[in-house]
Amino acid sequence: MLDQPIACVDVETTGTSPQYDRITEIGVVEMDPDGSVREWSTLVNPEARIPPFIEQLTGISNAMVEAAPTFSQVAEELQQRLAGRLFVAHNVRFDYAFIKNEFKRLETAFRADTLCTVRLSRRLYPQFYKHNLDSLIQRLGIQVEDRHRALADARVLAKFLKQLPHEHDATAINDAIRHVMAKPSLPTHIPEGLIDDIPDGPGVYLFYGDNDMPLYIGKSTGLRSRVLSHFSGDHRSTKELRISQQLKRVEWRETAGELGALLLEAKLIKQLQPIHNQRLRRENDLCAWQMLPAPQGGHMVTLKYAADIDFGRADNLYGMFTSQRKAVQTLRDLADAHRLCLIQLGIEKPSRAKATPCFAHQLKKCHGVCVGKEDPLRHDLRLAEALARLKLNAWPYASPIGIPEKHDGREEMHIVDRWSYLGTARDESEIVEILAGGAVAIFDLDTYKILVKHIKGRKVLPLA
Question: Model confidence over 32-72: pLDDT tens digits?
Fold first, then answer.
């Protein structure tokens, strides 16, 4: 294991988001194959405020970093110390992502092979339940001063690595390292380093094929692991295998949470029409049943189309169907189950002869409202009962609303009107821009289902 240069790295930060938070301290323990060890650490001015709870956790205050160098001032030395070394950290994705993003702000590419000591500990010590840094410290019997300071935590990792040969043979250690460091098998046209760029948080990913044709759009609360799952050796479906074979480019868009990812996914699929997203493709014949007074007394139902009526504001709408055939079949099934009259419903034309029963009454499946044997009010009660589970929620607000969402320092406001997703804003000016942009509230079934499910219990802000 120690036949290559190693850098045990730990960073302290202003928060948990590599994209929005900044580094406040870096600690590096350099280990060489000849056994020599060098240590380096520095406080870093994050050019942002350190939250009080982070100050309390790490002991690094705003006053301490005020005179410290910025990352740009230590970047060159850090890069030299890490160059050609295996990047080792506890939960390596965290430390590596922060350093990578700091270099990215300087328009400098940084890449390194990484080894996660959390995963290595789990692999070599499956008998232990916990593998966080405090558990490692206790297991190794290490006396640590300044816990949660970068160099002190990096030293723990160096001691952990040095301890391994005393408890495991070389074959077991090397096998464990190979397993932990195993690279995913990627499609031919996807650069290996791209996977390191994909964040672990929520968002939407887009796959493109030849000529930048959209292949597939998906969402996840863990983008990187979800994208990697498409490239697993045991493709779970023929579709997964086809996507992997056709893939030429990957793109992603981060969101502040699951709701934002769901809304953006549904919107992008409608816009781009990727060939492998059949389930959420645009449906042009969206329709619903509306209950209206019947000429003969009582109530009937009429099929209304999205092109003719605002589903976001209309009342007494039931079901949401992607075709007239599906709508009629559903109503016939309900009529059969609840002994409803097809003539009264309005989907069977009455005979010219007066008091001619409907076909269902001849089969004794209608109580006879069509021939005066049943009060229309009783028929209406059964109709309401039959349609109850299909009732659409009318838009309950007098104006568009904003639904706030927050994740790892990223805050967004989803703008919605009449069950239609208008866009997502990150500040007040973007809210004004969306509302003033003349975006048309077009009812979409998938967006409606997402909002009905996720809006309950959430704070919403009227945007009159």
Answer: 998 899 999 999 999 999 999 899 988 999 999 999 999 99
Beta-carbon contacts of residue 439 (< 8 Å; ≥ 6 apart): 422, 423
Q: What residues contact residue 141 under an 8 Å CB cut-off, 6+ apart?
A: none
What number of residues does the chain have? 464
Domain 194-272 classification at class level: alpha beta
Strand, coil or helix: 312: coil
In 3D, which of 306, 283, 316, 455 has the Cα closest to residue 384?
316
Please say whether the dihedral angle defined by the alpha carbons of residues 347, 349, 354 and 359, taken in this order, is positive or negative: negative
327 touches 289 (CB < 8 A): yes
What is the residue whose two structure tokens read 């004004």? 432
Residue whose structure tokens are 């609360």: 221
Question: Is 250 buried (19+), middle (13-18) or exposed (0-12) by CB count in 10 A?
Answer: buried
pTM as predicted:
0.72
Distance CA 264, CA 189 (A): 26
Alpha helix (H) residue ranges in 346-375: 359-362
State whether the Cα torsion 91-95-98-100 is positive or negative: negative
Closest of 453, 458, 464, 459 to residue 419, by C-alpha: 453
Q: Any idea which architecture 6-181 has in CATH?
A: 2-Layer Sandwich (3.30)
Distances (CA, A) of 344 to 94, 312, 325, 369: 65, 27, 19, 7
Checking if the pLDDT of 1 tops 60, the result is no
Q: Where are the domains of the chain?
A: 6-181, 194-272, 287-390, 401-462
